Fold this sequence. Notes:
Layout: E1 4-10, H1 17-25, E2 32-39, H2 45-55, E3 59-64, H3 69-79, E4 84-87, E5 93-94, H4 98-108, E6 113-122, E7 139-144, H5 145-150, E8 164-167, H6 183-191, E9 197-210, H7 215-218, H8 222-240, H9 243-266, H10 276-289, H11 294-301, H12 303-311, H13 315-318
Parallel strand pairs: 1-2, 1-4, 2-3, 6-9
Antiparallel strand pairs: 4-8, 5-9, 6-8, 7-9
Helix pairs in contact: 6-8, 8-9, 8-10, 9-10, 11-12
Amino acid sequence: MDKISVIIPVYNVESYLSQCIHSVVNQSYADLEIILINDGSTDRSGEICDEWGKKDSRIRVIHKENGGLSDARNTGLDIAQGKYIGFVDSDDFIHPKMYEYLLCALEDNKADMASCSYTSYIDGEMVEDTVLNQNGYTFVKVENREQYLNNFTDYNFMHYVWRSLYKRNFLDNIRFQKGKRLEDVMFCAEMSRYLSKRAVIADKLYYYRMRQNSIMHSNPSIFLEHIEAMEHNIEFFSRHEGKDFSQKYNEYVMSYILTTRMERKLNGISSEYVNIESMKAFAKLYDKYGSRNKSHWLARHVPMVYNLLKEQNVRKYLKVN
């Protein structure tokens, strides 16, 4: 059997950590190297890691100063010894067959990576078995590099590394952006340089816990950081992809931020944190990469945003008359 290294960054999750580790330890595919990176936790998370390390010889525990999720994942990547790599966030858990099915899909299709679906649940809810076929994975498709790239202009694409299994050598030249909270968005884009094929299966094998004090729900600057991550991808694709795709992605970014973030917030639908600073950040991004006819485009397509920006004195960014 070929070893899978499962990298689990850990930071102040004492209430959820054992459930997470238990779900990995009890995978149907047993040849695992489980790397727990205690990223400077101030609760009992580090102790829980050590306790599990004594129970199972497959577990390696690393204690380090806090450097953030990206730094912890990179630490795991640097020491991982498996032929394949998986990521699990320490407040989530996984289906017992997740890595068995992903590895089968990856090898059956001679792919660089395989991705499953996931289910979100509110902390405290019961989670039902989400495997569609108990006798094996439920195949969806194989994507080539061009098809994978096109995902980046799809509103429904999930930029999450934890729902995938990767060949180890496929990730040799990629690392997460340290200090960034939207690291998955950037990492998934940079993978495109090395990807030949991705296998996709329908089974929901990853259980994503939604809690109010998590990184994605507690940080009021997350919208600004989303803009920053997308700008990183704009510049990345402009360097490594053709003009046609770069322009297509640029247009998608502008449309995505406006229609799914800002306008919903202004209508009271979205819980995203959108304030004048994020408006300015988007205006700068639009000024650099968007349509030259900025004020007319905004007034026509997203009048609520246009009017708010105009009222908040950011004319120098939008060139609004």
